[in-house]
Design brief:
By secondary structure, the chain is mostly beta strands. The chain has no helices and 11 strands.
């Protein structure tokens, strides 16, 4: 069983910053994808950004230039630094992982999920 442990999140005013962190298992297959997804009330879960086992990242267009994913292989952590937050970023954020070579932002391709962290941005 793959366990993902999330921390961080909270509430901030528009324009502010928050950071999320996810601890993922130390021993994984050679090829894997790990990333962040979010789900706002009444909306479908969407990919925010993912990184593959080689460190290549992919972001959804709405967060490019504002959000940064960083993976620390020594600590087995995946952080999401969120800057210039807007109310539209309000959602529950999830860390997710799957064993595959090609990483996408499609949520149903990921089989392992963290518990979710709430991010609330007020105007």
């Amino acid at each position: 069983q793959v366990q993902l442990l999330e921390s961080g999140g909270g509430s901030v005013q528009a324009g502010g910053s928050l950071r999320l962190s996810c601890i993922f298992p130390k021993y994984l297959s050679t090829a894997y994808c790990v990333g962040w997804f979010r789900q706002a009330p009444g909306k479908e879960r969407e990919g925010v950004g993912v990184v593959d086992s080689r460190g290549r990242t992919t972001y959804t267009d709405s967060v490019k230039g504002r959000f940064t994913i960083s993976k620390d292989n020594a600590k087995n952590t995946l952080d999401l630094q969120m800057n210039s937050l807007s109310p539209e970023d309000t959602a529950t954020y999830y860390c997710a992982l799957d064993h595959r070579y090609s990483c996408s932002l499609v949520h149903y391709e990921y089989h392992f999920w963290g518990q979710g962290s709430q991010v609330t941005v007020s105007s």
